[in-house]
Amino acid sequence: MAQRAQIKGKVTYREGDGVQIAIRPGPVEVQATPSxxxxxxxxxxxxxxxxxxxxxxxxxxADGLITLHA
Length: 70
Known about the structure:
Order of helices and strands: EEEEEEHE
Structural class: mainly beta
Shape: globular
C-alpha cells in the first residue's frame, strides 16, 4: 500500500549510471520494499517516478527533506 509524503527540500535520484536528478518539491506517493523505495508524483499532466535505495530514502527523511504523512 502506498504511503503519502511531501518533498520539502533537494531530493535527488540517479537513473542507472547517469547524473543526479532532482525531484520537485511537493506531494509524492511512496512504495517501499525491503531494499528500495519508489516515489511517484503528478505535476500537471506529467507523471513521474523514481526508485532509490532504502538507505538513501531514510537519509532524506532523517534530514527533513522528505516528510511522511500518517
